[in-house]
């Protein structure tokens, strides 16, 4: 099969189209004929070598952590899926990613693509959607009526986090540039703070949950706006300063996203179809391009 691989760490010029072995389904696995994937920060970070210590794999490496397509082969012991099913997933983290014609995926990681969702839309959901869901609900235990601050609301994770939090009945605050304010309010944000002109720490208090996607000084300042004793800061970037958390009597936690859907399957309301908005800013042909 054809795939986009890297054989060295570096810039986008390292992306190369190559012929590689087509995967075969083992027990508990399926092969998915890829219709769409997406590009996430982890892709360029791995490509440039920033994640080498965490993912020290031999070359060639196929990037890609979002899959949307049609099952072409089913392995032994797979009973819930069949050839022809339209599925999407965030596969396990291996050097055999989804920038390819086919991808090997563990069956428990699959979810059905709702009828009203395109392959492009489906491919934009798994990694970002699971990241947002697990931060807000599995780790922060966000409740209806609580105030949540979501940093960088216009990003892939942020746009889904806003919708999930709003759907859960939370009061949603986000940081973004003014040009994205109207768009984010359409998604469900109750307040949009222009980070270019306003320091969120100067205008917010008594926030129940902060979803930190930035780290650094933004993470430190986020403790200032949290409620004492019950506030929770959940980061996907860096470990929060536990001394600051202790002083504030709050909880600070960093986590790594899991590939398993679990309760997050309701992201797409599988019984009734996707009710949110997944935004595809542009379509890029994976094969035959170096524009990733």
From TrEMBL:
PROSITE patterns: QOR_ZETA_CRYSTAL. GO terms for molecular function: oxidoreductase activity; zinc ion binding. Transmembrane segments: none annotated. Keywords: Oxidoreductase. It comes from the Bacteria. Residues 10-271 form the Enoyl reductase (ER) domain. InterPro entries: ADH-like_C, ADH-like_N, ER, GroES-like_sf, NAD(P)-bd_dom_sf, Quin_OxRdtase/zeta-crystal_CS, YIM1/Zinc_Alcohol_DH_Fams. This is Zinc-dependent alcohol dehydrogenase. It comes from Listeria cornellensis FSL F6-0969.
